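We modelled the chain as a single entity of 128 amino acids. Its sequence is:
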Amino acid sequence: MRAVGARNSKTSHSMSNKRHSGSVALKTRASVFAALGDETRLSVLTRLANGRAQSISRLTAGTNLTRQAVTKHLRVLEDAGIVRCLRVGRESQFALEPKPIDDVRDYLERVSKHWDDALARLKSLVED
């Protein structure tokens, strides 16, 4: 017999894992939103959106940005998982990794649906 107030360790462990994975997902989304919250980084992503890996030299061409500035922004994007660095010979090239952006878009769609549902319930309450 279990003592009063004792928890089922299997259930408690499962709930703890869910909280942990939820916390990790929130931190991941937050880092993606933070990385996307900069005009320069969005500009760099636009240049990478063609699907081809590009060097820092190519990414700075035609801009007023220094190689060091682009490198700094690419590291933030890489830390968020939005771009990946590939070595091609002696050169580093960067490519867009769309999955984190797809994940936050899915998250925003779920949040939007929750709000739409809540507003629809409120509307029906007010109109009845």
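As a brief sanity check on the tokenised model: The radius of gyration is 22 Å. The CA atoms of residues 122 and 128 lie 10 Å apart.
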